[in-house]
Description:
4 domains, about 10% strand, alpha/beta, Rossmann fold, disordered N terminus, 28 helices
Amino acid sequence: METTEKFKLLDxxxxxxxxxxxxxxxxxxxxxxxxxxxxxxxxxxxxxxQSFLIxxxxxxxxxxxxxxxxxxxxxxxxxxxxxLEYNKDFTYLxxxxxxxxxxxxxxxxxxGANNQFTVNEKLCEAILNNETVPELKxxxxxxxxxxxxxxxxxxxxxxxxxxxxxxxxxTLNLLEEYKEFALIQKIQHFxxxxxDKLMYLYLIxxxxxxxESCDIERALEAFFDRATKRVHYMQDLxxxxxxLLEYKxxxxxxxxxxxxxxxxxxxxxxxxxxxxxxxxxxKKKNKDNILSPADILKRKLIFSPSEMKQLYVLKDVLQPxxxxxxxxxxxxxxxxxxxxxxxxxxxGTGKTEVVxxxxxxxxxxxxxxxxxxxxxxxxxxxEKVVKKIFTNYKSFRQDCDIxxxxxxxxxxxxxxxxxxxxxxxxxxxxxxxxxxxxxxxxNFEGILIATTNLAHNLxxxxxxxxxxxxxxxxxxxxxxxxxxxxxxxxxxxEDCNFLAENFNFSGGQIDNIIRKSEINEIIHGExxxxxxxxxxxxxxxxxxxxxxxxxxxx
Length: 554
């Protein structure tokens, strides 16, 4: 296109940049700047929204850096969701080489959130010189861009823009052209078919962009035109007849339904990627359900002598050196080497705190799973979730120097008595979940501790799966008095005994009283008194028991 005085490219871009500050991407902005947008669209051969993005990224690039979504969100002062409406435009501009894209080192696990954009250098030169838009071609400068290019080819195949045959040819050309990349060289050492290479590269890309595992069926849809080809490949994977499995590059996450089956990279693959300078973010210590020993406050636990005796045995078993020796001996005797314990009893007796204190004393991480939150409302999904709990634990265990604890909190729903298989769809699902759990416990090699308040409803099939079964009774009066004294050292022994004899509280309920006392002191500036404690105790019970005392404040 020849430039004229009427159409000055940089003037158009500059005006759009100035007018778009704090525009919130509202419709009125595009209406008011329609003339400039149409002129840029004619020049770039793109839509108005795509031309607008080119202008903004071009200008921000000239301020000295790449541009990510956050930069634009701040500049436009818009809702992040508003900018995400332009996701297809970003994808198009990158696919046509208008934009170059790279991943941020500080990656956020949200699709697109870690993308940083620059305008293609050749396009920049054309803009600066008012020259016709040149023929643009994506330059692949690193392994990440190559992986993304192959992934984008798969998307084109899935959208029927290209067929499988063309996908194969283009992929082979890319692998040959960029065979100097370390990852490609290492993959060539394995005797993989092109199908397996595509699958492996797809999984690697999904992993480094934030997915711990990915759906096999969805991956196959990206590569194969024919459904029969997809079915045969899936069947071979599930049957273990695949080179990726033989070389232990991937592992399969089984499911009750074939089309729900997922796959993930093995530690061998993770190490291979690391050797190639590719970091797979494990996030071991950052997961919400991971608790490290350093995060646990040391607390003194008070239980009856019989309960403490059993807890000491369990704690001794889980000491790192003893645990290694025990597992070795059990394996030599061809006995299951996993350690599973069930802590059962009335609520508030300290079962959860016991797990934390044992983990701290034995220097073990806890992978906590709240079973009530794992039950899905969708039929068939709960089985998959339970299976994944153990798959995730196995992966996490491999990342830890010391075997971590898998903590199933409030496991009542998983280990209660199974019902008649024909009673309801819900009952059938619950039975299927329990069968999965029984199978996992049978082959378990780590440390599992489950808690439940309903052990009387325990399915008999689970009894032998738990090596330790520790009952927590409501604390006796003498134990309650000890708890009161530990929680409130300022109380006299007589007052502790008085409270313990008059209120049959669990440790959890006593904690509630202590919290109220602390709040009362902050709000009213009053030190704790026995009268205050009695009020709080009466409020803790639904019967509002009143206790009269005949002595003064502490």
